[in-house]
Amino acid sequence: MEQNSLSRALTGLLFLAALFFLNFTSRVIFSPLLPFIEEEMGLAHAQSGSFFFFISAGYFVAILSSGFVSARIGHKLTIVFSAIASGVVLFGLGFCTSLFTLRLTLFCLGLASGLYLPSGLVTISRIVAPAYLARGLAIHEIAPNLGFVAAPLLCEILLSFVSWQEVLAWLGIVLIGIGMTYGLSSHGSGERGKAPDLSASGFLLRMGAFWAMCLFFSLGICSTLGIYAMAPLFLVTDHGMDPQEANRLLAFSRTASIFIPLLGGWLGDRFGNRRVMGTVLLITGILTILMAMVGNGIWLMVFVVAQPLFAVCFFPSGFAVLSKLGPPEYGNLAVSLCIPFAFLLGGGVIPTLIGMIGDVASISLGFILAGVALTLGGCFSFFLTFKGENRGEM
What we know:
By secondary structure, the chain is mainly α. It has one domain (10-392): MFS general substrate transporter like domains (Growth Hormone, Chain: A), CATH 1.20.1250. Helix content is 78%, strand content 0%. It has 17 helices and no strands. The longest helix is centred in the middle third of the chain and has 31 residues, at 208-238. The two termini are 27 Å apart.
């Protein structure tokens, strides 16, 4: 596919962003639903936090195997299949009546939704010129930030009329419809993916930069998805808010960060992606610690809003770096290997650990420990040198 300027690729980018928005919302919507699910099913914080572990475990398996799927049916059909399958699973979640079946179906949701990202990112790399890659990825990255805002607002509005099971069913129906529309459109890439082989995988697995990126992406996902996942319980149990008030604050905290990735992409192109990544992790870690240490009042709201404002700037630069690791002919391989580990740790294990700490002490303590890890990761990144960044910095 001929590489285009950013303006010529904008329509395709927006279509992919819409699919990514629904894909992402289908996973994060369980965060604002947790207080209601906990109460209805009588769950502990650790059991609730484990929801994100099972989603991330399915996501882990799907991204690792996505290269085999896209190699057989192509990137566009992989994206379509991911959307439709995710919608079907969301619809089926309404029929789960036990913790076991809920966890199993959440694992299937991770399997279905995880197929999207590698093919989506490769499609972007084919339609956007290299000089605009970080900014193209920043446009795509608006989608999850919009999902962070939409999920609690949708829950607050719809839960006044329907059950949490029906909220998931309606989201699934919309996801199926948009997936079919994309499949019938002229947008996307008919190119087939490259199934990973041992030689190419071994090349990446021997790179210290690859494992460093796994660590940094784990922390980046922790700073956004991991903290977001447990934030409603943090606000309800540690600060005494009612679930509706907590969801409104959660939505407001992410509103300001919807378009901030555009700034993050520009900063990465201008000052170097490694430098931006480290600075973002460092600042986000400090803000996470402060958010967990303050009491009720204006400062709590300030830090709840400020923390994601910086955290979302990580991903445009992070994906720009990750896309340059490994041989060019394996464009989706670095993503397929790095992202599953990062999601499993940052989006699954860490929320579960925060929930366990919440059962023993408080969720605030779990946030403090996560903030310390982010701060140390930001400091560590400044000591590493990667190859391939423009201007010779990576």
